[in-house]
Amino acid sequence: MATDVVVAVKTDDGGPGDISGNVIFTAAVILTILLILIVVIGLWGPHRRPVTGVEGLVGEAGEALEPLDPRGMVRVHGELWQAESVAGPIGKDEDIRVTAIKRLRLYVEPLNNDKKPPHERI
């Protein structure tokens, strides 16, 4: 590759150009890093959790707008959803976490502060 670059650049007298080896080395390193970055992003992408659509709601937190015993309405991401509690009754205004979605119904459980990672506890 380096010889192709040197041969492609010619001086006015028709001879090979005078390109520093440092310039060629730097260009090769930058291109290699970009190639590795593109491959890593390409391999990592399919394993990421969906962040949009209905599938992106699983694991998200919300709020019960009415008592869930076992069914009621909740708000998740500012949207109103029909929900069913999978862990017993949930009171109005309690925080919930989405565990599953079937036929546009959210299945939820109470959001317990002890289950939150330490950096999310208040």
UniProtKB/TrEMBL annotation:
Pfam families: NfeD. The chain crosses the membrane at residues 23-44. This is NfeD-like C-terminal domain-containing protein. It is a multi-pass membrane protein. Residues 54-110 form the NfeD-like C-terminal domain. Its main location: membrane. Keywords: Membrane, Transmembrane, Transmembrane helix. It is found in: Membrane. It comes from Compostibacter hankyongensis.
